[in-house]
Known about the structure:
Elements (H helix, E strand, L loop, with lengths): L33 H10 L2 H5 L18 H19 L3 H10 L8 H11 L8 H12 L13 H9 L22 H9 L10 H24 L12 H13 L5 H31 L4 H5 L10 H19 L2 H23 L6 H4 L7 H13 L3 H11 L8
Amino acid sequence: MRPFGERWRAPYACDPGSSRGRLYPEAISPTRSEFQRDRDRIIHSSAFRRLKHKTQVFVYHEGDHFRTRLTHTIEVSQIARALARSLGLDEDLAEALALSHDLGHTPFGHTGEDTLDECMRAFGGFDHNAQALRVVTRLERRYADYDGLNLTWETLEGLVKHNGPLLDAEGRPMPRYAERGVPLAILEYNTLQDLELATYASAEAQAAAIADDIAYDAHDIDDGLRAGLFRIEDLREVPFLEALLREIDERYPGLDLSRRIHELTRRVITRFVEDVVAESDRRLAALAPASAADIRHARETTICFSPATREAEAALKRFLYVHMYRHPKVMEVRRQADDVLRDLFRRFKADPLAMPEEWRADLPTDDETRLARRVADYIAGMTDRYAILEHRRLFDVTPDLR
């Protein structure tokens, strides 16, 4: 295994000098690569700033040390860059994808996505990956020449396909889209710029995707413990975590709880990252890719956990699902958040004039689908606190979400 700090470039890495370009051609920057420009545009976007006040996972009380979508995104970015450097990938592309992966998320965490999806069921549904694509190609309005951020093909395909192909070789939706089809926003954009929906994304996109899982796993343990949703000893029912706790206790007997938690979460990240690098190296050696295209046309994901660690990570997620995501106190807040967003959707759809002028401009009142999508775009872009303020403006009683 190569030293983690060593920097090198592999032949299967995406090359910013050979990018497939942007939908709207632009002059090359003399000071930044194409992927650096993408990263910078994402950081300076309005949608990125709003992540500061969007819930990551609800806990039953507020606190300055719990993760938001923004702090989660920064942690994902750090892990994605570490993986990219170790595997010889383009760090700037991996970082751009990590920084943009949550731009389509709603207020109130996954509750918001579930609620908007149900509200939009008759109008094509709601999918946060498709919404992220809408954000960076249409909804951000900063530049004089075009809507969106005009990101490179590589960043857009990674944003859409980081969880794998959307279509099979015959053009049929993959199993996760079999029932409802690939989101319309993705299919519509694909007619403008072919993102090759039947292939895998780049190794950089795959690194960003698994970095998301690693960050989630580690910080949800941390947040869940600090919120009192479960005890550190409860984690011993997960064999992977029990082994780490035993290791910590043997080396640091009597360690105070705060440091013990941190020692656990840092070991979770380290073990997962080391495993991904080792397993990815094994797969890369077997595949022997000579270009980024070889990664895209592989028969399976290239950047991933080993089978044993994949099972350990799945067991960790099962623990968190029961003890955190479905904790009664968390579920009560989810119920209240669901009420807030349903109320807002119904109100704005029935009375578009209740939305700000920029959101109701050029909106035909006889096209129910376009109206519903506009309402969903508006609500999806809200922060938690703005959604609560809008609810208080329009309704007599607003839940306190505690």
